[in-house]
Amino acid sequence: MEELTAHFIDLHAANVLFLFLVGFVGGMVSGFIGSGGAFVLTPAMMNMGVGGVVAVASNICHKFPKALVGAYKRHQYGQVDIKLGVVMAVAASVGVWIGADIQHAIHAAYGKAGSNLYVSSAFVVVLAVVGGFVLHDVVRIVRTGNRHSEEEKTSRLARWVQSVHIPGTMMQFRTAKVRVSVLFIIPVGIGTGMLAATIAVGGFIGVPGMIYVLGVHSLVASATELVIAFIMGLGGTIKYAMHGLVDIRLAMIILAGSLFGIQLGAIGTTYVKPYAVKLVMATIMLIVAFSRAMMIPVYLTQLGRMSLTEKTAGFLSGASFMLMVGALLTGAFIIIGAMVRGHRDHKLSLKTAEEAPE
Amino acid sequence: MKNTSLRVRLVLSGLLSGSLYILLFVDAERVLHLSTRTDGLYFLMPVAIALAFSLAHGAFTGYFWEVIGIKPKHAHVKGR
């Protein structure tokens, strides 16, 4: 019990309200793009005084039931490919294992600051590259005037992947409407798991990977990511619970808000075009990449490779956290805006259909 | 009639969800103590709690948006 009091915090109304609200916004983003929110929740809990590992464990414990509800909801809308989700999750589990081993090795060699530097660098490199690629696609869609199209252009890479037939490895995915070799799914899944083990949001590789490498529709990819998040989250919760590290109170407070959010985000996907999913994903990824880039000088100072005053380091840490919250809020505003526009267009089309002569 | 049934479901699931939260927080220290035990099958407690809350609160939040008029448009994913 002595160890417990060192890890678990007393709850205050302000903390509860903050976690509920972050849970709600994070849930909405997850319901829409399949992941998100986790990158804000862990540092937010740590700012409240929760130990890092308890924050990660409690975050994961809220993630799997949230993903379950989101996946169920989006399955009702015909957007989830369960088979693809399970195959990806198996590969992602291997990725988590590899990612965790790399983390341990870096922590052993360079300590906490080295580990933080590695995590932030992974954030910056992966999110800037993948987010930049998604943003490039968003700009292309806008330029070609296809913003309002339900159809999506399959990337050249995905067309090639789908054209490769390796006997004994081909898998058909009915909802995703693709037939690809499992040998292409495995690296995407492993990448998803490795990112999840590093920055806690595997979906930033999983969703773009399914869209641009396998050729899966954006709405199906973001919905299928919830299956992966459920399976990985369940495994992660069991692992952390076996070490007694889950603060169930924190997890259930976040879940209270996030279940409101995930349902809203999932409903939102039925009103928007695939373009909106890509826009939200690119925006969040690039703002988060920038936010983590601000922390690199702080960790380099801790490693003795740079020199920053305490005041500057404090300013950069605060600004970086605020930018992450800003990324989540920006994503939420784009989602709400897209939903309102989609709902208005839908009502208008129903009205036009009613008024049209028989 | 349909709206009444939906509201009844909202109230029932809300009561169930609310009861679970009361049960969790009325003696949070004890629940926390039990759910962080590392012997036996106690590690399953956080998983079971999370699943129970997701069912009750998930149903409540689903009905909540429906009752206030935020419903999905019937969606089909267009093929390529």
User: What does the overall shape of chain B look like?
Assistant: elongated
Which secondary-structure class do the elements of chain B indicate?
Answer: mainly alpha
Provide the domain count of chain B. 1
Total strand segments of chain A: 2
**Given the structure, what is the number of helices of chain B?**
3
Number of helices of chain A: 13
Give the topology string of chain A: H per helix, E per strand: HHHHHHEEHHHHHHH
Name the chain pair whose interface involves the most residues.
A-B, 55 and 38 residues
The biggest beta sheet of chain B is recorded as: none
Radius of gyration of chain A using CA atoms only:
21 Å
Q: Radius of gyration of chain B, Cα only, in angstroms?
A: 18 Å
Q: Mean of residue pLDDT of chain B?
A: 90
- Helix content class of chain B: over 70%
Tell me the strand order in the biggest sheet of chain A. Answer: 1-2
Summed up, the domain count of chain A is 1
In round numbers, the mean pLDDT of chain A is: 90
Kindly, what is the distance between the CA atoms of the first and last residues of chain B, rounded to a whole number of angstroms? 41 Å
Alpha-carbon distance between the termini of chain A? 74 Å
Strand content of chain B: under 5%
Shape verdict of chain A? globular
What is the helical fraction of chain A, as a range of percent? Answer: over 70%
